[in-house]
Amino acid sequence: MEKKRFFGSIGKRLGHHVRGRNKFLAPQPKIVQMTIVGLDLAGVPTRPTGFCSLNGLQAETCLLFGDHKIIEATLNCNPDVIAIDAPLCLPHGRKTIEERTANHLRDSDRALLKMGIKIFPVTLGPMRKLTVRGIGLRETFQTRGFRVIEAYPGGAQDVLGIPRKQRGLDGLRMGLAKLGITGLDNALSDHELDAATCAYVGKLYLEGEAVAYGDPAEGIVMPKGKKL
Hints:
The protein has 228 residues and is an alpha/beta fold. The strands form two sheets. A seven-stranded mixed sheet has the order 5-4-3-6-7-9-8, with helices on both faces. The protein has six helices and nine strands.
C-alpha cells in the first residue's frame, strides 16, 4: 500500500539582518539548498518503487506504484537532479532491447565489474523490463528539462563502506544516518532506503564528489571512494 506523505514545495528565501549602529540592511549570502529525488525503480508498475526527496540532508520517503505517480511526485519536488536505480541506456551499438546480439554490457557495467562490484547485464532476464522502464522515465524527465543520472545503490553502499540491505535494514539505515541523512525511521522498506542512497549519490554528484563510470553522458554515477 502506498504511504501517503505530503511533499511540499521548498521555498528558497534570502534573509536580511540589521548590522552596525546605522542599521543598514545588509543581505546575507544566499543559502542554496539542493533538492534531489532518488528512485529505486521497480521493473513493473505493479511492484513498489522506492521514492526519496532529499532536501539538504533531510529525507522524505514513500512507496509509489505506476509511472504516473512516480512522475507526479518527482515533478512536485522540482529537483535539481533525479537519480534512478535502473539502466538508463542500452549498450553501444544496440538499437533496441529486443535486438539479438552478444553485446549485453555497457562501458559503465564493465568498469564496475573491474572494481569488483557485481552488476547484472541490462538486456537479460528481468533486467529487460527494468531497462525499458528506466529509459522511458529518463526521456520523460529530460524532455521536461530535468537532469537525470543513473545510480546503483548497492555499489554506492560498497564504496561508502555501509552495509547493503541484504545484511539487514537496520545496518543500512544506520549507515545512511552516519552520512548525515535524517528522517529515516525504523519502519522504512528496503526500497526507500535504496532510494535514499540514490538521492545521496545525486547530492554528491551536484557537489562534484561523484564520478560517472563509462560514457560521461550516460555512465553509472558513483561516489568518489569515500569511506566512513
